[in-house]
Amino acid sequence: MNTATTQFKPFDGVRVLDMSQGLAGPYAAQMLLMMGATVVKVEPPQGDWGRVMGLARNGHSALSVIANWGKKGICVDARNEQGREVIKRLVGCSDLVMESFRPGVMEKLGLGYDVLKSLNPGIVLGSISGFGRSGPHALRAGSDSILQAATGMAAMNGTDEGAPRRVGMLAVDMITGLYAGYALSAAIHEQRASGVGRHLDLSLLGASMAFQAMPMVESFLQGGEKRKPVTVPSGNFDAADGQLSVVCLRNEMFHALAKALGHEEWATDPRFADNEARQRNVDTLHDLLAGIFPTQSREYWINRLNQAGVLCGPVNSYSSLREDAQVEALHLLADVDHPDFGAFPFPAFPGAQRAADELPPAPALGQHTVDALRGAGFAEAEIHNLLSSGACMQA
């Protein structure tokens, strides 16, 4: 990596106190870290609940590793007064605090925005909850699965028979983290320009709805009828040795597809005259394509259709994606090492020049407690007292 690319760290010097758990909040803080910020991850004695989600080993999970890579880990028990005083001291030397408790929890802990602002007038507080901080459902617990169901995402992604079906990843959590990271970046810009802080109220509900703006508006305009394909043909088709994805955005592209497949007559077939006609006859057209693609290899069709100007590409698994020549050329997967998971490929962060393989792995619970306390100005006697009392823990 050349020197010029390593200098793009717009949030260099920004100090983030990440009290959030799970994926959405930690990933938002991770966005800032990948752009140069220093992030101190604060966890309770029982740890971030994300540590036990999915594949887990020795207090780490795939979720917690991805969302906390490169952070400093500190363990503080905010249930007692000493622990809360530690957090207040840390707030005093931070630029931004991230939390994902239910509305009212920070206030009950004596760490609400008014308190944080009195300690640090320019502080930015980012709060992520399931349903926001006001309204009749504000105190309801929210999770990715619940919000996929509640916001219509599961219905939008339903089966051909109309049964709702959740997207097979934590899509709501991830997109909430991305929207939150964007909003926090704007707040940091404002803070740097004016010294003014603010409290950002972010929710899984709002982020999930914004993410679905196009299909949602389309549904409203169609009176709630089942979504039609946006463009036809569009889908995954079996070739002789694997699947490829094919999409035609315009009539010209469909005509090019027809010619490449040896069926130029399709261009003048009234059933396929334009996208609206092809939508009405989608099953017929897709059946025709399904009868042709198995006659050649996937690579043959991808090369032929790309030469013709038709959008297409392989249907990859994660394993085959890892071997994709374009992924390799752009260095989109970096091999990293973790003490409990060993070596594995880590996706590059878009737009950031900070690479995962240049950063330390996600921390163990309380791994950097003593170092973080020293950095915040705690004396050695204070640190010893905090560890002895159980207000803080060092791994």
TrEMBL record:
It comes from the Bacteria. InterPro entries: CoA-transferase_III_domain, CoA-Trfase_fam_III, CoA-Trfase_III_dom3_sf, CoA-Trfase_III_dom_1_sf. Gene3D superfamilies: Crotonobetainyl-coa:carnitine coa-transferase, domain 1, formyl-coa transferase, domain 3. Keywords: Transferase. GO terms for molecular function: transferase activity. PANTHER family: BLL6097 PROTEIN, SUCCINATE--HYDROXYMETHYLGLUTARATE COA-TRANSFERASE. This is Acyl-CoA transferase.
